[in-house]
């Protein structure tokens, strides 16, 4: 979309936040290099919702491809170049990361009939509001599924990794943060402070990248934090 995107992801491990961190970091670096700009390309945290595959995955897939239509970007999902709709219908070659076989098999074993049924399914879904069925902001599924996943509602996240790291999913990579530092020690220190206090990198992560001892990094962070506090009090 104009300021965000939707991904329907199946992962065998609890590593979604790490994947989103890498994806957004690489995306930002390439975009900024291409357009000669700096800073965030995407703002804010990603939101992960755990979906019951058997009952809601098709509804969610339909909702995602219809989102550009609801937003007024296009009149039909086939017109949106970033959508998986045309690839699922076989009109364009699917990119390597896109799996269309599972969705099509839910309609028919014959690919041609499955695509026709999928097209009708999408066109009948303009008024479906799938997000209204999300429980606790993180679960989308049947009542039995929600009850089974009840502990996640209390934890507030589909997995502990997301709970602890999703706030840093869109942070820039250390490579991007220190790309223009060179031999400028003052700029290096400011970027160290930024990496730790704003983007949540640990002292050991910064140590491994810049080569300074963690205790030195700690002193830099504390010193610049003290300067910021002093300025705030003036």
Briefly characterize the structure.
This protein has helices at residues 16-35, 53-70, 85-88, 101-105, 111-123, 143-148, 150-155, 160-165, 174-177, 185-197, 203-210, 214-233, and strands at residues 50-51, 134-135, 139-140.
Write up what this structure looks like.
- This protein is mainly α and about 230 residues long.
- It has 2 domains: about 15-170, no CATH class; about 175-234.
- Helices cover about 55% and strands about 5% of the residues.
- The chain has a 3-stranded mixed β-sheet with strand order 1-3-2.
How many domain modules? 2
Strand percentage, roughly?
under 5%
Oligomerization status of the protein chains = single chain
Distinct helical segment count:
12
Q: How would you spell out the order of helices and strands?
A: HEHHHHEEHHHHHHH
| Low-confidence spans | 159-167
Main sheet summary:
3 strands, mixed
Strand order of the largest sheet: 1-3-2
Q: Distance between the terminal alpha carbons, to the nearest Å?
A: 42 Å
**Rounded Rg:** 22 Å
Principal-axes shape call: elongated
Overall helicity: 40-55%
Helix/strand class: mainly alpha
Tell me the total number of β-strands: 3
């Amino acid at each position: 979309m104009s300021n965000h995107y939707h991904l329907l992801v199946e992962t065998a491990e609890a590593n979604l936040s790490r994947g989103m961190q890498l994806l957004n970091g690489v995306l930002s670096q390439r975009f900024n290099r291409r357009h000669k700009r700096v800073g965030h390309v995407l703002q804010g945290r990603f939101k992960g919702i755990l979906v019951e595959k058997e009952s809601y995955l098709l509804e969610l897939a339909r909702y995602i491809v219809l989102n550009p239509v609801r937003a007024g970007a296009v009149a039909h999902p086939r017109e949106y170049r970033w959508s998986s709709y045309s690839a699922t219908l076989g009109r364009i070659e699917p990119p390597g990361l896109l799996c269309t076989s599972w969705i099509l098999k839910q309609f028919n074993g014959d690919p041609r009939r499955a695509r026709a049924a999928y097209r009708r399914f999408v066109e009948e879904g303009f008024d479906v509001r799938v997000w209204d069925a999300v429980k606790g902001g993180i679960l989308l599924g049947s009542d039995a599924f929600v009850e089974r996943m009840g502990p996640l509602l209390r934890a507030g996240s589909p997995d502990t990794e997301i709970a602890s790291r999703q706030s840093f999913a869109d942070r820039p990579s250390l490579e991007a943060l220190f790309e223009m530092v060179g031999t400028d020690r003052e700029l290096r220190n400011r970027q160290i402070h930024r990496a730790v206090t704003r983007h949540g990198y640990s002292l050991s992560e910064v140590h491994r990248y810049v080569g300074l001892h963690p205790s030195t990094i700690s002193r830099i962070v504390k010193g610049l934090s003290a300067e910021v506090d002093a300025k705030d009090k003036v």
